[in-house]
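Title: [Solved] Oligopeptide transport system permease protein 3D structure

Original question kept below for reference.
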Amino acid sequence: MPENTDALILDAGGAPATTPDGTAVPMDKRDKPRSLWNDAWHDLSRKPIFYISALVILFLIVISFWPSLIASQDPLQCNLINSQNGPSSGHWFGYDQQGCDVYTRTVYGARASVEVGIFSTLGVAVLGALLGGLSGYFGGWLDAIISRVSDIFFGIPILLGGVVFLSAVKGGSVLTVSTFIILLGWPQLARIARGAVITAKEQDYVLAAKALGAGHGRIMLRHIAPNALAPVIVWSTIALGTFISLEATLSFLGVGLKPPAVSWGIDISAAADQIRNAPHMLLWPAGALSVTVLAFILLGDAVRDALDPKLR
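Solution (posted by the thread starter after getting help):
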């Protein structure tokens, strides 16, 4: 028997485990317990839909910051002579009613939509997770106040609220639309975070930390937050696509982003009246919006399946 049995894997009887040829198996070769995040990545890495949606999203982010990589023209450079002309050599998507190149505007339109989606999701995630986490952890009067405030915001339809709120704001911008979405979008995530924190704080490891005298900050950051983060990430991933769609809807209604901003919603609104005469004006920005929203939803579904042990 080897001298240092501590470095070997022991079998059920307490003896060092061996391979079929009789060689002892070192401890560093044993299967180590994996965390939720390791298991989630292992599950995601086996799903083609995860890679497809992630590549689409990565491509959208790249062209959002560097649209000139695939579009060399100016989206605001228009010529009425080309008004509603169909696809041609060098202008694959044709021209819109103002004589602007539809391909260029479709590429540049990704920037506003992605910016609104990212800023809104980050804002909602921070505000909702913070308020929901405090509500679930401390309970009592703080929970009652935050819950009643969230109920008030839940009673405001987000689309109707956007029409009313943004109609009173002059010069719609990415910051304005994102701020509105954050103000009305946080209650749902707050409830999800609250439920996750309530579940986590009843676990034995949290009770043990309290018994050892750990403070509220340490318990929330070291023990509760990592275990309550999964539903927040899943909801945020799916919500990002929803917020992009909401921005396009508000811009379509004329209360979101406004010209000279370049947005898929603005282009869809301008093309809606010309769908019979020039369907290409509507096809490309609407298609880009649909693919973007679908990519985020599919990515969110894949992440949800990976982070939920019950679905494995």
